[in-house]
From TrEMBL, chain A:
Keywords: Cell membrane, Membrane, Transmembrane, Transmembrane helix, Transport. It comes from Yoonia maricola. The chain crosses the membrane at residues 24-45, 218-239, 259-279, 285-309, 335-356, 410-431. This is Phosphate transport system permease protein PstA. The keyword Flavoprotein does not apply. One of its GO terms (cellular component) is plasma membrane. Residues 214-428 form the ABC transmembrane type-1 domain. It is found in: Cell inner membrane; Cell membrane. GO terms for biological process: phosphate ion transmembrane transport. It is a multi-pass membrane protein. Belongs to the binding-protein-dependent transport system permease family. CysTW subfamily.
From TrEMBL, chain B:
Pfam families: PBP_like_2 (PF12849). SUPFAM superfamilies: Periplasmic binding protein-like II (SSF53850). InterPro entries: PBP_domain, Phosphate_ABC_transporter. This is Phosphate ABC transporter substrate-binding protein (PhoT family). It comes from the Bacteria. Keywords: Signal.
Length: 439, 344
């Protein structure tokens, strides 16, 4: 039977069809994966992008002396006795006056009008007055945070319908807010505070920020970098280049691979037992967090460093030894520089993994309400010894709060965390592309 | 280098980095119900005093008290928040670890409410309804038989034919204990089931245990997370009825509707007047040995129970705490550092 080379026979067709099918499977797998990513990103972005905006009320506040400085001595120590609770009526009077000045009429009580301003505002005003007692007696215009529900209205989270059912606001309050916004008193602008301010309690979602969490994460990454990188690289060089190949090194090797797969919560338990209970480091401190994450990241760094060292061809070592270099010289002058991009990539990926880790931090007290910025060093608490939180933990914390405004904050924190991870991974890829040599 | 050596090296480096372990902030842990209140107080405290803002952790009453009882020293917490009173067994553990002087501070009362999706059916419960719906076994004609109720109209003909689906706090929450005692056990007793068991010769402890055993066939789901998880479950399954703290419900009235209990709507007023039956006191416990050591600890405690904060017009009441009618006595306990068991 004659067959044409151009016409494919049944078997070729079958093989081609199998290939086409396989390609379709692969493509659909990618589509599913991309779809999952798209759904995740859309939900996070739609919920969270609004957290980068914040609603402010520009309010002239009359800082009357009888309210703020009862003794009249303009002494900050005496004036500090007036608490933020004492400042609240000041702000209430200010917004009532502002509503009148704008010619708006409302049936809302003065108290309800006052509740349109964030509880954080009293602290803002008080701090300004204490820092500058000369302001007492004058009328000063402050840019004050609007309450969470009012903020939610301008972001579309709160509507007139939901406000009617809501005990914490009312449609009247939203309508007044809308009229004040039309008059230019209420303004929504970019929210730098989200990145710098500390956490806030459930009554002030509008004031909550990531400042402490970002600082805590930064400290922990520093601890991880300065401990995990040298320890990891030193142990991999020794294991890969110097250690004899025998039973003991085999056991160590198996154990390291095994440790890389240990659930991270186990490191948290270990950290609690060793670093807090035995060595008595401070709870909730970035030092303990960093140490725990170091233990967790070490196997990752050792494995990737060993892979990078292995990928350097033996001919390089042989050539170095051949011209009279010692073993150590061959490793440090030739092998290590060639393996450096791989080591760096592994380290950055390990750091990124540590940055997003929550579980071990649960056990060492970092899932906490912390408002003080942790200092890098204090004589009392030592290096990185002050309480702090971390970015992923802040997300966890905020999703548990009862005020729905924290959902927006949590999504905003996720976006921030994702951006950090994206930057780290992009740097890792760039370094690999730029410096990696293939043989 | 073995892993143990690595660990030792890491530890050695860290040890040289940190030489002293003093702490200048108050450290608090415990009940997730008390957490929002404690955070509100910590925030205002940090704003108005020269001390650093206390660090408040969550994790549940039992977990908090366990850490509280671990011992005395800067690496242990100063205050444990609890949504139930400390148990005698916990006091013993505390004492065994050297935590002997404990100051008990009752900050007020919290209502436990039953809420469901705002667009669903509304309910008027009695504790007996809940016992019938959620008990693991019913005592019928002198025998314990498995609970077979599937819908609410089987429990009480007045209810709609909505499938029974309850989301109740998990066992690590203090709220669970209150739910079992004030709702399930109360329902068992009110319905006469408890008495029936006693009459049938069952001893009291066993009968109580049988009354409070919750069914495990999926009609009742334990929520170990926070109320936000309960809310998410109800949003996903609109037949669900969840157990919430009053304050959580009051912050989410646009999504939830609350059920009455014995015909009483839960509000701070009805709880303060003891009309609404399901409420419990909230506490925090201070380690007296830390008062001299940790700066600001006593000021924080006194500030917490001051009229400005915990009083009926304070921020805690505004968030949903039912103010303690005996607040003055609580304030004296704190300012005089009266420890538990000292007889006063």
């Amino acid at each position: 039977m004659k067959t044409s080379l151009l016409a494919s026979d049944a078997r070729t067709k079958k093989r081609n069809a199998a290939e086409a099918r396989f390609k379709a499977y692969g493509l659909s797998a990618i589509v599913v994966a991309m779809l999952a990513l798209a759904i995740l990103l859309t939900s996070v972005l739609t919920n969270g992008l609004s957290s980068f905006q914040q609603t402010f009320i520009a309010l002239p506040v009359e800082l009357s002396a009888e309210r703020v400085d009862k003794q009249g001595n303009r002494d900050p120590a005496e004036m500090a006795k007036t608490t933020t609770i004492g400042y609240a009526p000041l702000l209430r009077d200010a917004i009532v006056a502002e509503v009148e000045r704008q010619g708006l009429t409302t049936e809302m009580s003065d108290k309800d009008l006052g509740d349109m301003i964030s509880k954080e505002a009293a602290a803002t005003v008080r701090n300004r007055v204490l820092a500058n007692p000369d302001l007492v007696g004058e009328t000063v215009t402050f840019d004050l945070l609007a309450a969470g529900r009012i903020d939610g209205y301008f972001k579309g989270r709160v509507t007139l319908e939901s406000a009617a059912l809501d005990g914490n606001t009312s449609p009247e309050a939203l309508m007044i807010a809308q009229e004040l916004a039309d008059a230019g008193v209420i303004e929504t602008k970019f929210n730098w505070n989200f990145f710098t301010a500390p956490d806030a309690s459930v009554q002030r979602p509008e004031a909550a920020g990531l400042g402490v969490a970002i600082l805590g994460s930064l400290y922990m990454m520093l601890v991880v970098l300065f401990l995990a990188l040298p320890i990891g690289v030193a142990s991999s060089i020794y294991l890969e280049e110097f250690a004899p190949k025998n039973r003991i090194t085999d056991i160590i090797e198996v154990n390291i691979s095994n440790l890389a797969a240990v659930p991270s919560i186990v490191y948290g338990i270990l950290g609690l037992a060793i670093f807090i209970n035995f060595m008595e480091f401070n709870q909730s401190s970035p030092l303990v967090g960093g140490l725990v994450l170091t233990l967790m990241t070490l196997p990752t760094i050792i494995i990737s460093t060993r892979a990078a060292l292995k990928s350097v061809p033996p001919s390089i070592r042989d050539a170095a030894l051949g011209v009279g270099a010692s073993k150590m010289q061959s490793v440090f002058h030739h092998v290590l520089p060639l393996a450096a991009p791989g080591i760096l990539t592994g380290t950055i990926i390990g750091l990124a993994q540590a940055l997003g880790e929550t579980a071990p931090l649960l056990l060492i007290g970092m899932v906490a309400f912390v408002r003080e910025y942790p200092a890098a060093y204090t004589p009392e608490a030592g290096l990185f010894g002050e309480a702090s939180t971390a970015l992923p933990v802040q997300v966890f914390n905020w999703t548990q709060r009862s005020d729905p405004a924290f959902v927006e904050r949590a999504s905003g924190a996720i976006i921030t965390l994702l951006v950090f991870l994206l930057i780290m991974n992009a740097v890792a890829i760039y370094l690999r592309r730029r410096f990696e040599r293939r043989w | 280098m073995s892993f143990m050596k690595l660990t030792a090296t890491t530890a050695a480096i860290a040890l040289t980095a940190t030489t002293s372990f003093a702490r200048d902030n108050v450290q608090v842990a415990g009940s997730s119900t008390v957490l929002p209140y404690a955070a509100i107080v910590a925030e205002v405290f940090g704003e108005n005093f020269d001390y650093p803002t206390p660090v408040v952790e969550s994790g549940g009453s039992s977990a908090g008290l366990k850490r509280f009882c671990e011992g005395v020293g800067a690496n242990t917490i100063d205050i444990a928040n609890a949504s139930r009173a400390i148990r005698p067994t916990e006091v013993e553990v505390c004492a065994a670890n050297g935590v002997t002087d404990i100051i008990e501070v009752r900050i007020g009362y919290d209502g436990i409410v039953f809420a469901s999706d705002i667009n669903g059916n509304s309910f008027e419960f009695t504790p007996e309804d809940w016992y019938k719906a959620l008990a693991n076994e019913h005592f019928i004609d002198g025998e314990l038989v498995a609970n077979t109720f599937e819908t609410w109209d089987q429990v009480n003909p007045d209810f709609p034919a909505q499938p029974i689906q309850a989301f109740i706090p998990g066992t690590k929450h203090g709220t669970r204990e209150v739910f079992e005692e004030k709702v399930i056990l109360a329902g068992c007793e009110e319905g006469g089931f408890f008495q029936a068991m006693l009459d049938a010769g069952v001893d009291e402890d066993t009968a109580e245990g049988k009354c409070m055993a919750i069914r495990t066939d999926g009609r009742s789901v334990d929520i170990d997370g926070d109320y936000t998880e309960t809310l998410a479950r109800i949003e996903a399954d609109t037949n669900g009825i969840g157990v919430f703290g009053l304050s959580f419900y009051e912050n989410n009235t646009d999504k939830l509707q609350v059920a009455t209990m014995n015909g009483i709507v839960p509000t701070t007023e009805s709880i303060a007047a003891a009309e609404y039956p399901v409420s419990r006191p909230l506490y925090f416990y201070i380690k007296a040995a830390h008062i001299e050591v940790i700066p600001g600890l006593k000021d924080y405690a006194e500030f917490f129970v001051s009229d400005d904060i915990a009083g009926p017009d304070g921020p805690l009441a505004e968030y949903g705490l039912v103010s303690d009618p005996e607040l003055l006595k609580v304030q004296e306990t704190v300012s005089n550092e009266i420890v538990m068991g000292s007889g006063s």
